[in-house]
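Lab notebook, bench 4. Still working through the backlog of constructs that have no structural model yet. Next entry is a single chain of 280 residues. Request: give me the structure tokens for it.
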Amino acid sequence: MVDVGRIPALFAGLCDDAAVFPPGLAPLPAAVTAHDEHVSAWYAGLVGPLVVAATALGELAEVLGDREVPLPVAVTLPGGPAQLDGVLEAVAELPVKLDALEIAVPDGMGPDELLAALSGVTAPVFVEIPRDERRVPLLTALSGTGHRAKFRTGGVRADLYPDEAELAAAVRAAVEAGVPFKATAGLHHALRNTDPDTGFEQHGFLNLMLATDAVLTGGDAEAVLAERDGAVLAGRLRALGPERAAAVRAGFTSFGTCSITDPLTELAGLGLLEAPRGEA
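Model written out:
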């Protein structure tokens, strides 16, 4: 799997750059500068768009000025579809490439109302799936629409982290509905771990990747999400053939991370990729 000088296909575009969100909270000007450095580095193939909130688009206009090369961005809409018109108008005036819209589902909004609100949107959409009884109906409704799902896998409180059973069920529901998904929040490391500062049980992004494969192949997704042995997970990833690897990434498209270099370092530490000579 190691391919010197470039990112293996299994990890291509895996890390959406969420530097401005907690816990990183990078100032937007610094985040833009760092993102440009990331996409100019040898590991550029690992990096997805810069994720920004809808409310930050005014500041982004000031930061970008008359930039010539469009900045790839994903815009989060925590207020739901009501923010769509304003976001699309703002983005149209910016030197950016809109890679995705990440849209929350307001309390009380059902699948039919949501799909009606998204009917005129041409940009890729990730719908943030609530952790309630609407999960399966929403995923079922998204099936075949071209829209995707977004799952929260953590946050600033312990209760914001779904346990293995809940996350495995969410992945299973998305895969069965044929809806690709991304993950955000709480995936600070490659492997399942206990945060030493908070005591929170945190999912690993490689666990989530292999849980997707487990659902696709009839394995035990819950057990994979609980696995903490890096050698075990790395071995399973190396054993994926091209077809299974492609199927995994078709299902699990990316995850948001406030640090691009941390997952890069951890993947290298597990022997899953290697920097070219002279690079760190």
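Notes after review: The longest strand covers residues 96-104. Strands lie at 15-17, 47-53, 71-77, 96-104, 125-128, 148-152, 181-184, 193-194, 201-202, 252-257. Flag for follow-up if needed.
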